User: What shape does this take?
Amino acid sequence: MTKSIFISLSVCFIVSAGLKAQTYNTMTIPDTISGTTFNLTLKDTMAQLRSGNQTITGGINQNKFWGPTLIMYKGANVSFNVKNKLNDSTTIHWHGMHLPAVMDGGPHQIIPPGTTWQPYWTVKNQASTLWYHPHLHMMANEQITKGLGGFIIIRDAAERALALPRTYGVDDIPVVLTSRRYDASNQFSFTTVAYGDYMLTNGTPSAQISLPKQYVRLRILNAEIERGYDVGFSDNRTFYIIGNDGGLLNAPVSVTRVKLMVGERVEILVNLSNDQIGSSIDLKAYNGGQTFGFPGGEPATSGQFGSLLNNTTFNLLHINVIAATPNAITALPSTLINNTYWTAADATISRTVSITDGNPGPGSLPFRFDNTAFAFNTINKTIPLNSVEKWTIKNNNVFGHAFHIHDVEFKIVERNGSATAVGSHESGWKDVMYVPNGESVSFVAKFDDYSDDIHPFMYHCHFALHEDDGMMGQFVVSSSTEVLKQNKIEVPFSVYPNPAQDKIFIKFESDAVDVYYITVYNAGGKAVLMLPAPDIQKGISVSELSKGTYYLQLMDVKTKSMSVQKFIKN
Ligand code: C2O
Ligand code: CU
Ligand code: CU
Assistant: This one.
């Protein structure tokens, strides 16, 4: 089921200083795709983001900057066709999702141009706001800058049982924060640009929205390259945090500001019941006067670490209050869900990751973990399946960072050794945490359900430039029953029917064999289909391939050896 909400971007411009009336553009609400099958086509496109030339962006389906919101249900078996029609290779990572490493879309699952990647999994996460984005090593900055990404909303029974706003685009609004710098011909600048000069909210410059006079839910995501946001409302009203990265909190937390670093999400409720119809209020970034180390607090207005928005307070979203909807939510729930969080005492293994290097000066190295840059062939940590671990990220360095880990949602248990120093705004399940300069921050997580000795998960700074520069490590979750044999033997199999029209099936000569990965290449040696752990009972659809000769390369689960068979598509 595809529901499209198209709100066209009528581009108006703030003419020049001196003009009093501020003009706004109606904020785009991303289209939604709901259900169990998600088709995403990535391609280069263009968007009119400001006056003059259009800007080359990365589009997903019809969306020209920032893709559709994927709505899925806990317990569902979801499958994806991710088609790369970009001119570059890419990957798509499901940020925050608990899933097998081979489906994770990290830097290892490279989708070449023209190839379709078909991951699938069972949704185990609880109701939450996740997101997806490219994760190609050394290209993350460029591809995220171009607007490739989107929200994932997971729904479940516990969330549904609560009286919360959940009508998408009406009282439940996705809000993605990015800022961009343009060159003289209106193209995004990426090379070593940490901070943009102009705000885009859901890809809309000077964004506004009409919201009903009632409690409204905003799902705010910082999808920046590096900038942090200190979010609040222009009248300093209290609002309520109901969810962190990994889902709802136990109870709403009232605040007037919330800091949001790259990759972090926060779900908030704001009460507009007492606002006049026709009045307006602004959601703003109170980034002026932050101390050094807050990303975007640097005072320069240009250059690599400067920007027109740095160290200033600026608008994120202009909100016009309109009449309440029927069935409006008019009360704040006093409690939400019952989370059972890990505590430091639950952890049986402790690890420390230190933030090193990155000091300015001649011959300096980029920021790294433990003096080691990311390398594809180095597994930095091996984690026993089901282990509950305490990780401490130590930052004695010069700047703040946003630490992210794949596979798990964690509980922040200590800041600088103190449990009470953990903010109530970050008291729920998290997958990104702010590690300011001079702090060590600890989390506890359980690495359950999925083990794989070949495909690692990543941990990294979510600042795209830091990640691309090697501030990233990888871990495998290993089960002792899984013995990786290095036997490079052929596992004989056949493909039938051959020639085939719609579907092909695999038959192994011996029974006890299963498939770990299949890649289908055309006669020119180009990958056209990538199938992590396909269910070979169901067959593999080849209906979209053009007629010709193909080579199916199969890696089996036990020996992890590769075998190839040729087949014809008719
Ligand atoms: Cu949001 Cu490794 O990523
Ligand atoms: Cu991630
Ligand atoms: Cu960093």
The chain has a mean pLDDT of 93.
